[in-house]
Amino acid sequence: MRVLMVEDDDAIAVPLARGLEREGFEVARAATGELALAAQDYDVVLLDLGLPDIDGFDVCRRLRAGSDVPIIVVTARGDEVDRVVGLELGADDYIVKPFGFRELIARIRAVTRRAQPRTDDLAPGTVGALTIDRRTHQVTMDDRALALTPKEFDLLALLAEQPGTVFPRAQILEEVWDAHWYGPTKTLDVHVAALRKKLGDPAWIETVRGVGFRLVEPPSEEAGSAG
Ligand code: CA
Question: What is the pTM of this model?
Answer without folding.
Answer: 0.52
